[in-house]
Amino acid sequence: MNKVKKAIIPAAGLGTRFLPITKAVPKPMLSVLDKPTIQYITEELSEIGIEEIVIVVSPDCEVIRKHFGKAESLEERLLQDGKQKLYEIALETRKFNVKFAVQKQANGLAGAILCAEEFVKEEPFVLLLGDELLYAEKGEKPCVKRLVEIFEQTGKSVIATMEVFGDDVSKYGNIGISSEEDGVMQVSRIVEKPSITEALSNNAIIGRYVLSGKVMGMLKNLKPRNNEIYLTDALDELASNGELLASCFEGARYDVGDKLGYIKANVEFALKSKEIGEETKEFIKDLASRL
Ligand code: UTP
User: Fold this and answer.
1) What is the predicted pLDDT for the residue at 7?
2) Are 219 and 109 in contact (CB under 8 A)?
3) Does ligand 1 have an atom closer than 6 angstroms to the CB of 15?
4) Are 224 and 218 in contact (CB under 8 A)?
5) How far is the CA of 130 from the centre of ligand 1 (A)?
6) Is pLDDT above 70 for 1?
7) Distance CA 280, CA 33 (A)
8) pLDDT tens by residue, 44-81
9) Is any atom of ligand 1 closer than 6 Å to the C-beta of 17?
Protein backbone atom coordinates (compact mmCIF):
# COMPACT_ATOMS: atom_id res chain seq x y z
CA MET A 1 0.00 0.00 0.00
CA ASN A 2 2.88 2.35 0.74
CA LYS A 3 4.76 1.39 -2.41
CA VAL A 4 5.94 4.47 -4.35
CA LYS A 5 5.65 3.99 -8.12
CA LYS A 6 4.93 7.44 -9.53
CA ALA A 7 6.71 10.76 -9.87
CA ILE A 8 5.83 14.33 -10.78
CA ILE A 9 8.35 16.77 -12.28
CA PRO A 10 6.94 20.31 -12.47
CA ALA A 11 8.55 22.15 -15.36
CA ALA A 12 6.01 24.86 -16.18
CA GLY A 13 7.43 27.81 -14.24
CA LEU A 14 8.27 31.13 -15.88
CA GLY A 15 11.98 30.91 -15.05
CA THR A 16 12.27 34.67 -14.67
CA ARG A 17 15.65 34.46 -12.91
CA PHE A 18 17.08 33.11 -16.14
CA LEU A 19 15.66 35.52 -18.70
CA PRO A 20 16.16 35.97 -21.62
CA ILE A 21 16.95 32.28 -22.38
CA THR A 22 13.73 31.20 -20.63
CA LYS A 23 11.60 33.19 -23.09
CA ALA A 24 11.82 30.22 -25.44
CA VAL A 25 13.57 27.48 -23.43
CA PRO A 26 12.00 26.17 -20.20
CA LYS A 27 14.46 26.26 -17.30
CA PRO A 28 14.53 22.45 -16.88
CA MET A 29 15.80 22.20 -20.47
CA LEU A 30 18.95 24.20 -19.67
CA SER A 31 21.87 21.96 -20.33
CA VAL A 32 24.56 20.92 -17.89
CA LEU A 33 27.29 19.76 -20.25
CA ASP A 34 25.38 17.92 -22.98
CA LYS A 35 22.20 16.97 -21.09
CA PRO A 36 19.25 19.04 -19.95
CA THR A 37 18.60 19.10 -16.20
CA ILE A 38 15.29 17.32 -16.65
CA GLN A 39 17.04 14.31 -18.16
CA TYR A 40 19.35 13.98 -15.14
CA ILE A 41 16.21 14.07 -13.00
CA THR A 42 14.46 11.30 -14.92
CA GLU A 43 17.69 9.26 -14.63
CA GLU A 44 17.58 9.76 -10.86
CA LEU A 45 14.16 8.08 -10.95
CA SER A 46 15.01 5.23 -13.30
CA GLU A 47 18.08 4.37 -11.15
CA ILE A 48 15.69 3.47 -8.34
CA GLY A 49 13.07 1.81 -10.51
CA ILE A 50 10.42 4.54 -10.63
CA GLU A 51 9.22 4.57 -14.19
CA GLU A 52 5.80 6.21 -14.20
CA ILE A 53 6.66 9.87 -14.62
CA VAL A 54 4.50 12.88 -15.37
CA ILE A 55 6.13 16.14 -16.43
CA VAL A 56 4.03 19.26 -15.95
CA VAL A 57 4.62 21.67 -18.82
CA SER A 58 3.29 25.07 -19.89
CA PRO A 59 0.73 25.10 -22.76
CA ASP A 60 3.13 26.21 -25.51
CA CYS A 61 6.04 24.01 -24.45
CA GLU A 62 7.00 21.63 -27.26
CA VAL A 63 10.68 21.27 -26.53
CA ILE A 64 10.37 19.00 -23.47
CA ARG A 65 7.90 16.72 -25.27
CA LYS A 66 10.31 16.59 -28.21
CA HIS A 67 13.24 15.72 -25.98
CA PHE A 68 11.43 12.63 -24.66
CA GLY A 69 9.94 11.66 -28.02
CA LYS A 70 11.16 10.12 -31.26
CA ALA A 71 13.52 12.19 -33.42
CA GLU A 72 12.76 10.27 -36.61
CA SER A 73 15.03 11.87 -39.18
CA LEU A 74 17.97 12.25 -36.77
CA GLU A 75 17.70 8.62 -35.63
CA GLU A 76 17.45 7.34 -39.23
CA ARG A 77 20.44 9.42 -40.30
CA LEU A 78 22.63 8.24 -37.42
CA LEU A 79 21.77 4.61 -38.25
CA GLN A 80 22.47 5.11 -41.96
CA ASP A 81 25.84 6.67 -41.15
CA GLY A 82 26.69 3.76 -38.84
CA LYS A 83 26.96 6.06 -35.80
CA GLN A 84 25.67 3.46 -33.35
CA LYS A 85 26.93 5.16 -30.17
CA LEU A 86 25.32 8.48 -31.04
CA TYR A 87 22.14 6.66 -32.09
CA GLU A 88 21.96 5.09 -28.62
CA ILE A 89 22.47 8.48 -26.98
CA ALA A 90 19.60 9.88 -29.05
CA LEU A 91 17.41 6.97 -27.94
CA GLU A 92 18.20 7.33 -24.22
CA THR A 93 15.29 9.60 -23.37
CA ARG A 94 12.77 7.40 -25.18
CA LYS A 95 13.14 4.59 -22.62
CA PHE A 96 11.41 6.66 -19.93
CA ASN A 97 7.68 6.17 -19.54
CA VAL A 98 6.94 9.90 -19.53
CA LYS A 99 3.48 11.43 -19.69
CA PHE A 100 2.65 15.12 -19.80
CA ALA A 101 0.20 17.33 -17.96
CA VAL A 102 -0.39 20.98 -18.86
CA GLN A 103 -0.44 23.84 -16.37
CA LYS A 104 -2.43 26.57 -18.10
CA GLN A 105 -1.19 29.37 -15.87
CA ALA A 106 1.96 29.44 -13.78
CA ASN A 107 0.13 29.68 -10.46
CA GLY A 108 2.86 28.15 -8.36
CA LEU A 109 4.37 24.80 -7.51
CA ALA A 110 1.22 23.51 -5.80
CA GLY A 111 -0.80 24.51 -8.88
CA ALA A 112 1.59 22.48 -11.04
CA ILE A 113 1.26 19.42 -8.78
CA LEU A 114 -2.55 19.62 -8.96
CA CYS A 115 -2.35 19.43 -12.76
CA ALA A 116 -0.99 15.88 -12.33
CA GLU A 117 -3.84 14.79 -10.06
CA GLU A 118 -5.44 12.46 -12.60
CA PHE A 119 -2.16 10.64 -13.09
CA VAL A 120 -1.37 10.20 -9.40
CA LYS A 121 -4.95 9.70 -8.13
CA GLU A 122 -4.63 8.79 -4.44
CA GLU A 123 -1.24 7.14 -4.63
CA PRO A 124 1.94 8.43 -3.03
CA PHE A 125 4.35 10.17 -5.40
CA VAL A 126 7.87 11.52 -5.66
CA LEU A 127 8.08 15.23 -6.41
CA LEU A 128 11.29 16.44 -8.05
CA LEU A 129 11.84 20.09 -8.89
CA GLY A 130 12.88 20.43 -12.51
CA ASP A 131 15.70 22.88 -11.84
CA GLU A 132 17.65 21.18 -9.06
CA LEU A 133 20.40 18.66 -9.65
CA LEU A 134 21.54 16.28 -6.94
CA TYR A 135 24.71 14.29 -7.19
CA ALA A 136 25.50 11.28 -5.03
CA GLU A 137 29.05 9.92 -5.26
CA LYS A 138 29.48 6.20 -6.00
CA GLY A 139 28.55 4.26 -2.85
CA GLU A 140 26.39 7.10 -1.45
CA LYS A 141 22.67 6.45 -1.27
CA PRO A 142 20.74 8.61 -3.78
CA CYS A 143 18.50 11.14 -2.07
CA VAL A 144 15.22 9.92 -3.58
CA LYS A 145 16.02 6.30 -2.71
CA ARG A 146 16.42 7.27 0.94
CA LEU A 147 13.14 9.24 0.92
CA VAL A 148 11.25 6.35 -0.69
CA GLU A 149 12.63 3.94 1.92
CA ILE A 150 11.49 6.21 4.76
CA PHE A 151 8.04 6.63 3.22
CA GLU A 152 7.62 2.91 2.61
CA GLN A 153 8.61 2.14 6.23
CA THR A 154 6.47 4.80 7.92
CA GLY A 155 3.67 5.77 5.50
CA LYS A 156 4.47 9.42 6.30
CA SER A 157 5.35 12.12 3.77
CA VAL A 158 9.05 12.93 3.81
CA ILE A 159 11.07 15.84 2.47
CA ALA A 160 14.78 16.22 1.75
CA THR A 161 16.75 18.97 3.47
CA MET A 162 20.31 20.25 3.44
CA GLU A 163 22.28 22.13 6.08
CA VAL A 164 22.60 25.87 5.51
CA PHE A 165 24.33 28.62 7.45
CA GLY A 166 24.40 32.42 7.70
CA ASP A 167 22.56 34.39 5.02
CA ASP A 168 21.72 31.20 3.11
CA VAL A 169 19.15 30.34 5.80
CA SER A 170 16.84 33.03 4.41
CA LYS A 171 16.87 31.64 0.86
CA TYR A 172 14.91 28.44 1.57
CA GLY A 173 11.95 26.94 3.39
CA ASN A 174 13.10 26.12 6.91
CA ILE A 175 11.95 23.31 9.23
CA GLY A 176 11.45 23.00 12.99
CA ILE A 177 12.45 19.57 14.33
CA SER A 178 10.72 17.96 17.30
CA SER A 179 12.75 14.73 17.39
CA GLU A 180 15.29 12.76 15.41
CA GLU A 181 16.11 9.08 15.16
CA ASP A 182 18.58 7.37 12.83
CA GLY A 183 18.80 10.51 10.70
CA VAL A 184 15.02 10.77 10.28
CA MET A 185 13.64 14.05 11.65
CA GLN A 186 10.10 14.62 12.79
CA VAL A 187 9.09 18.03 11.41
CA SER A 188 7.11 20.26 13.77
CA ARG A 189 6.73 23.40 11.63
CA ILE A 190 7.77 25.05 8.41
CA VAL A 191 8.65 28.69 7.78
CA GLU A 192 9.17 30.11 4.30
CA LYS A 193 12.46 31.96 3.78
CA PRO A 194 12.87 33.14 7.39
CA SER A 195 15.22 35.86 8.60
CA ILE A 196 18.18 34.44 10.53
CA THR A 197 16.43 35.15 13.85
CA GLU A 198 13.15 33.51 12.71
CA ALA A 199 14.85 30.33 11.49
CA LEU A 200 13.84 27.18 13.37
CA SER A 201 16.93 25.14 12.46
CA ASN A 202 19.77 24.94 9.96
CA ASN A 203 17.76 22.57 7.79
CA ALA A 204 16.58 24.00 4.48
CA ILE A 205 14.04 22.27 2.26
CA ILE A 206 15.40 21.15 -1.12
CA GLY A 207 13.57 20.00 -4.23
CA ARG A 208 12.95 16.31 -3.51
CA TYR A 209 9.87 15.00 -1.71
CA VAL A 210 7.86 11.82 -1.30
CA LEU A 211 4.29 12.81 -0.56
CA SER A 212 1.34 10.69 0.50
CA GLY A 213 -1.74 10.59 -1.73
CA LYS A 214 -3.70 12.73 0.73
CA VAL A 215 -1.55 15.76 -0.14
CA MET A 216 -3.46 16.20 -3.42
CA GLY A 217 -6.70 16.61 -1.48
CA MET A 218 -5.03 19.08 0.88
CA LEU A 219 -3.72 21.19 -2.02
CA LYS A 220 -7.23 21.42 -3.49
CA ASN A 221 -8.52 22.91 -0.26
CA LEU A 222 -5.77 25.50 0.19
CA LYS A 223 -6.61 29.19 -0.03
CA PRO A 224 -4.52 31.10 -2.61
CA ARG A 225 -2.17 33.89 -1.49
CA ASN A 226 -0.94 36.38 -4.14
CA ASN A 227 -2.77 34.28 -6.77
CA GLU A 228 -0.69 31.23 -5.94
CA ILE A 229 -1.26 28.18 -3.78
CA TYR A 230 1.72 27.09 -1.78
CA LEU A 231 2.96 23.55 -1.24
CA THR A 232 4.52 24.72 2.01
CA ASP A 233 1.03 25.48 3.39
CA ALA A 234 0.08 21.82 2.96
CA LEU A 235 3.45 20.67 4.33
CA ASP A 236 3.01 22.91 7.39
CA GLU A 237 -0.40 21.34 8.02
CA LEU A 238 1.10 17.84 7.76
CA ALA A 239 3.89 18.91 10.14
CA SER A 240 1.49 20.23 12.76
CA ASN A 241 -0.40 16.89 12.63
CA GLY A 242 2.87 14.97 13.18
CA GLU A 243 2.69 13.55 9.65
CA LEU A 244 5.84 15.00 8.10
CA LEU A 245 9.37 13.62 8.25
CA ALA A 246 12.64 14.96 6.84
CA SER A 247 16.00 13.50 5.89
CA CYS A 248 19.17 15.52 5.39
CA PHE A 249 20.91 14.97 2.04
CA GLU A 250 24.67 15.16 2.31
CA GLY A 251 25.69 14.88 -1.34
CA ALA A 252 26.14 17.74 -3.77
CA ARG A 253 23.15 19.85 -4.84
CA TYR A 254 23.04 22.46 -7.59
CA ASP A 255 20.30 25.02 -8.03
CA VAL A 256 20.47 25.11 -11.79
CA GLY A 257 17.71 27.73 -11.88
CA ASP A 258 20.13 30.24 -10.41
CA LYS A 259 22.98 31.68 -12.51
CA LEU A 260 25.78 30.89 -10.07
CA GLY A 261 24.38 27.43 -9.32
CA TYR A 262 24.18 26.76 -13.05
CA ILE A 263 27.83 27.71 -13.62
CA LYS A 264 28.98 25.62 -10.63
CA ALA A 265 27.07 22.57 -11.93
CA ASN A 266 28.64 22.91 -15.38
CA VAL A 267 32.16 23.28 -14.00
CA GLU A 268 31.84 20.33 -11.63
CA PHE A 269 30.22 18.06 -14.21
CA ALA A 270 32.90 19.04 -16.73
CA LEU A 271 35.60 18.10 -14.19
CA LYS A 272 33.93 14.69 -13.67
CA SER A 273 33.60 14.06 -17.40
CA LYS A 274 35.73 11.27 -18.92
CA GLU A 275 35.78 13.14 -22.20
CA ILE A 276 36.86 16.62 -21.11
CA GLY A 277 37.64 16.31 -17.36
CA GLU A 278 41.45 16.49 -17.63
CA GLU A 279 41.43 19.39 -20.07
CA THR A 280 38.89 21.26 -17.96
CA LYS A 281 41.15 20.83 -14.93
CA GLU A 282 44.13 22.25 -16.82
CA PHE A 283 42.01 25.14 -18.06
CA ILE A 284 40.78 25.95 -14.53
CA LYS A 285 44.31 25.84 -13.10
CA ASP A 286 45.53 28.17 -15.80
CA LEU A 287 42.56 30.47 -15.33
CA ALA A 288 43.05 30.52 -11.54
CA SER A 289 46.70 31.46 -11.93
CA ARG A 290 45.59 34.53 -13.88
CA LEU A 291 42.90 35.71 -11.46
P1 UTP B 1 10.80 27.99 -9.28
O2 UTP B 1 10.01 28.89 -8.43
O3 UTP B 1 12.25 27.82 -8.99
O4 UTP B 1 10.73 28.31 -10.82
O5 UTP B 1 10.03 26.61 -9.34
P6 UTP B 1 10.24 29.47 -11.70
O7 UTP B 1 9.04 30.15 -11.16
O8 UTP B 1 10.16 28.85 -13.04
O9 UTP B 1 11.53 30.40 -11.70
P10 UTP B 1 11.84 31.92 -11.32
O11 UTP B 1 11.85 31.98 -9.83
O12 UTP B 1 10.79 32.77 -12.00
O13 UTP B 1 13.20 32.11 -11.93
C14 UTP B 1 10.63 25.34 -9.12
C15 UTP B 1 10.15 24.34 -10.16
O16 UTP B 1 8.71 24.33 -10.22
C17 UTP B 1 8.25 24.57 -11.53
C18 UTP B 1 9.41 25.28 -12.24
O19 UTP B 1 9.39 24.99 -13.65
C20 UTP B 1 10.64 24.72 -11.56
O21 UTP B 1 11.11 23.55 -12.21
N22 UTP B 1 7.03 25.42 -11.49
C23 UTP B 1 7.00 26.57 -10.78
C24 UTP B 1 5.92 25.03 -12.22
O25 UTP B 1 5.92 23.96 -12.87
N26 UTP B 1 4.81 25.82 -12.21
C27 UTP B 1 4.75 26.99 -11.50
O28 UTP B 1 3.69 27.68 -11.54
C29 UTP B 1 5.89 27.37 -10.77
Assistant:
1) 97
2) no
3) yes
4) no
5) 8
6) no
7) 12
8) 999 898 989 999 999 989 999 999 999 999 999 999 99
9) yes
Domains and CATH numbers, the chain: 6-257 (3.90.550.10)
Q: How far is the CA of 112 from the centre of ligand 1 (A)?
A: 9
Pocket-testing residue among 22, 27, 30, ligand 1, by greatest number of atoms within 8 A of Cβ: 27
Region 11-28 average pLDDT: 93
Query: Measured on CA atoms in the order 71, 74, 79, 85, is the torsion positive or negative?
Result: negative
Q: Is 188 in the pocket of ligand 1 (CB under 6 A)?
A: no
User: Nearest CA to 269 among 134, 163, 146?
Assistant: 134
Give the residues across from 101 on adjacent strands. 56
Regarding the beta carbon of 142 and ligand 1, being less than 6 Å apart is answered no
State the DSSP code for 222: P
| Partners of 90 in beta bridges | none
Whole-model pTM over 0.85:
yes
Residue 123 sits at φ, ψ, to 5 deg, of -85, 155
Residue 56 CB less than 6 A away from ligand 1: yes
Helices (H) and strands (E) in the chain, counts: 11, 13
CA gap 244, 258 in Å, rounded: 28
Cα 221 to ligand 1 centroid, rounded to whole Å = 21
Regarding beta strands 52-57 and 6-10, do their DSSP bridges make them parallel or antiparallel, or are they unpaired? parallel
The mean pLDDT of 191-204, rounded to a whole number, is 94
The answer to whether the CB of 124 is under 6 A from ligand 1 is: no
CA of residue 260 to ligand 1 center, whole Å: 17
CA-228 nearest atom, ligand 1: 28
User: What is the 3-state composition of the chain as percent helix, strand, coil, each rounded to the nearest 5?
Assistant: 40, 25, 35
Pairing of strands 125-128, 6-10: parallel
